[in-house]
Amino acid sequence: SVPIDSGDSLKAALIRALKSPAPGVTSLVGDFLLRLVSGSVARLLFHVGYGHAAGYLYMRGVDVRCIQQSREAIGSASSDEEAITSADFECVTGMDAAPIRAGDDMT
Predict the structure, then answer these.
(1) DSSP string covering 28-57, please?
(2) What CA–CA distances, in Å, run from 27 to 30, 34, 74, 86, 93?
(3) Can you say whether the dihedral through the CA atoms of 18, 21, 27, 28 is positive or negative?
(4) Which of 22, 26, 100, 102 is the most core-located residue (most Cβ within 10 A)?
C-alpha cells in the first residue's frame, strides 16, 4: 500500500503541507482541512491520520490523547467512516485495537 502523503494528488499535497516546518503553512492547511470536516477532530484524524495531524493539533492546543472514534464523534459518517467506527479502532496506529497477549511475537 502507498502512504497517504505520497503521490501527486491534492490530498497528498495538503497532507505534506500540513507537516511543513513553517507554522504559517501548517496553520493555514490544518484550518482548511478541519473546516472541510466540519470542525470534527475525529474526522480529521480519520482522513489524514494521527501522525500527520498531531503537530497541527498540538499547535492549536487540542488535547488528543486519543479521540474515541464513534458515531457521535464522527457525526454524519460516510460509508468508509462507518466501517471504521463499527469496530474497535486505535486512533494512534490506525489499526484494529486488538489486545496484545502474552507470548505474541513483538517486532
Answers:
(1) HHHHHHHHHTTT-HHHHHHHH-HHHHHHHH
(2) 5, 10, 22, 31, 24
(3) negative
(4) 26
Whether the CB-CB separation of 50 and 62 falls below 8 Å is answered with no
65/94 Cα distance (integer angstroms): 14
Instruction: Give, in order, the Cα–Cα distances in Å from 54 to each of 29, 30, 40, 77, 107.
Output: 13, 10, 14, 22, 24
pLDDT tens for the chain, 107 residues: list them: 678 888 999 999 999 999 888 879 999 999 999 999 999 888 898 888 888 998 899 888 887 665 554 444 555 555 555 554 545 555 554 445 555 565 666 56
Take residue 6 and report the three cell numbers written for it: 505520497
d(CA 17, CA 25): 7
Measured distance CA(60)–CA(46) in Å, rounded: 18
> What are 76's three cell numbers?
454524519
